[in-house]
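Recap quiz, item 2
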Amino acid sequence: MDNISAKTTNMQEEENIAVLKKQLKKEQRQIKIHKFTNNKLAMIGAVITIAMALVAILAPVIAPAGPYDMLVSDRLKNPSSVHIFGTDTFGRDLFSRIIYGARVSMGVGAAVSTISLVVGMVIGLYSSYYKTLDSILMRICDGLKAIPAILLAIAFMAVMGTSVRNVIISLAIVYIPDIARITRSSALMVKEQMYIESMKALGASANRIIWFHIAPNVLSPVIVQTSFIFATAIVQEASLSFLGVGVPVPAPSWGNILYEGKTVIYNAWWMIVLPGLSMAFPVLGLNLFGDGIREVMDPMSN
Amino acid sequence: MKKYVVKRVLSLIPVLIIVSVVIFCLIHLTPGDPARTMLGDQASEIEVENLRESMGLNDPIVVQYVHWVGGIFHGDFGTSIFMDEPMYKIILDHIGPTISLTIYALLISLIIAMPCGIIAARKRGKSQDQVISVFSMVGISVPSFLLGMLLIILFSVRMKILPSAGYKAIVDNGFLKHIEYLTLPAISLGLMQAALITRMTRSSVLEVLGSDYIKMAKAKGVKDKVILIKHALRNALLPIITVIGQSFIALLSGATVVETVFNIPGIGQLVVNSVLRRDYEVIQAVVLVIALGNVVVNLIVDLLYGLADPRISLE
Amino acid sequence: MAEQEKILEVKKLTTSFKTERGKMNAVQGVSFYVNKGEILGVVGESGCGKSVTAQSILRLYDEKYLVEYQGEILFDGVDLLEIPEKEMQNKRGKDISMVFQDALSALNPVFTVGEQIMEPLMNHQHMKKEEARKRAVEMLRLVGIPAPEKRVSQYPHELSGGMRQRVMIAIALSCNPRLLIADEPTTALDVTIQAQIIDLIVELNFKMHMGVILITHDLAVVAETCKRVIVMYLGQTVEEADVNDIFDHPMHPYTNGLIESIPLLEDKGVKRLHTISGMVPLLNQIPKGCRFAPRCPYATERCHREMPEFVNADGRHKVRCFYPIGLE
């Protein structure tokens, strides 16, 4: 009798603990969401980013002129009511070019961050699971990380030739190791906590464990990193184009506009200040956003 | 100590091998014929074939790699097809301005970042902290080449107090002229790192200030100022050593773009010109040298860290 | 009983922290005193405000924008909450010292043990470096560290856990304080080492005739070392009495629960240890009436509604309960 009652109380206790744990988890999640919406800077960041994405998508609607429309009589005009951002050396409407530039620059950023996210996560997850694969892949990542990002990207562009596609490929190669690293290290931590060994013993397949049990738990640091990569990719695309090894010239990318602006820096300030601010804007937004999520995820920051 | 250094240096060998393979593959395994790309569409088939032969592109890939690495050990980093000088001389000629610019930028970023980071941590949540954090956020979001041009517009075009471009070597023009020409480039290069180091310093100091030994020091009756300077900074600066190392490398590579803005004849300009001329071997050599520098700086940082933190024994 | 000289008297101390969700009282209306040369035990679960009380006495929390103190903390008749920070600095480590729970994190990793003992000596007693160093070696010897001449120039991470705790005690005692606050000084240590450290504190208390506040969650330690005990629950004192009284006739149901949950050696056979049901509520979910009511087996409707006062029950025993055990 005594034994049975002891047993039932034990079971009850366990149940209680399980319920408590669930509550705690739910509460933590609510706190996180609360913290995020309360983090004004992060919200501002998200709004800026979404606004710039909308500008890029709606470019043909917003822009008063086409990005290549030239009016030779209107070369290097000051900002005015006709051309609110002025015109460039070919007489193209700068405002329209910047708006269309958002398509190229934000597009490159989005593509680079998506590719790095997907490929990096696959690499990171599988190398956290298979030791041999790990040592090979991580050594390659070490090698790639030993070369500073911009130099590596320049070298890639040099051999592949300039095009939007190649800019995306080379920047993705540069940032894949970052995601792979972060995924791997958080996956290793998750693996330790989640008794993956016992799941293996129970016959769960590797793919199932990796994608259903490990992957969801590494997402938050990876998303933070991805938003920073998005921001950096915008800057790097602009840098490459500015150096003449990025997006080929007539295309309206922010880097190209700035490159052109440099040649007339003494007479047309708007060619630098306006596209420059347009570029800094989404970069700031993405950085604020990434910072915000990181703060929400990091238990130390409270 | 000696043993540790040797061990640490030996551990670099696999990294360096990987780096060299990566750089090698970059040029030799990418689609297309490097010889054709270098010579352009107008070149004849025979010219291309000759260049392939002289670059050793017709050998098996492994032979090409061994040849290249073997050459490096003999101090032969390859040959430029445009410049009639040994590669090491080409690099040495260009590295001076870059190093000068990098060090100047690093100094600027440290002078700005350290006090800002400490103040932000001390005044956590107050207006000073908020102002600093807004500035550092903006600093991180404005790329150096853009900042460079904005500074040119402000200080060269409008106020006309600093030169907008060019480089004056110390040997020819003296230290002051040298600094005058490098100031705008160094500020534009250094400001983003300043922002990053500020943030790192802030979080590092904050972490230390929240630790038990700071409370203990207070319980011993140590004055607040002494706690900050003696007990907190010593500990907070440890992780910052690593950040400074990383910043140095980031500045070195960031110089590539800034040098183009300000027309400084450094490594960056060498790379960009080589890319435009499709002088692959120069690119290969420069990337290798920078990667090597990166690895060496990391080694030095590790050793310094070991010296500064008694918990790490260098035995 | 002859009235002894009080070295410290805390009157209605309330320590509250400003947080994002408003003000939270970590300690509320706590009163107690320590006599000269006496060891006072402070007992309670983690989160009951023991440490906050201890750190409030030294005003270790950053007053400017985090914390608010109310009440009085009389040390030698001087209210510590009234004196300026500069004067407080002079008292810390000199008149009142503190030993922390985890010596590894409380010792600064980048300074040698010697440097850390010398610091208060040079600050408070204006010793020269050489003199302070000599005294540091003496202190290490006093707290029972072998080969002190060698240890003095070692770093904290080079010592064992027990030795680090001894070093902390050496630092705390270096200026001959009149009051030592030991906040869970043995929690982080092995059982055998725990006994050694407690013995050391008792021995030094006897030798140096200083008052000691020994904070612990371990009633066994209290039983061995202290003369008087206060029990804290959720930021309040719930019971205060001589050690023997507390163990023989605990009056507060909480104290009773604590005592019954100590395993006794003479108990043979299988017996489930008593546990106090429920968990310590968070500070922002403090119950309205008696704070212990939700977990109390004897709680009535009145307990849930009203807060009992901390009153003298039978002359020697103070308790915060409407229905003290054994006093119906």
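The CA atoms of residues 234 and 308 of chain B lie 9 Å apart.
Chain B touches chain A through 53 residues (CB under 8 Å).
End of item.
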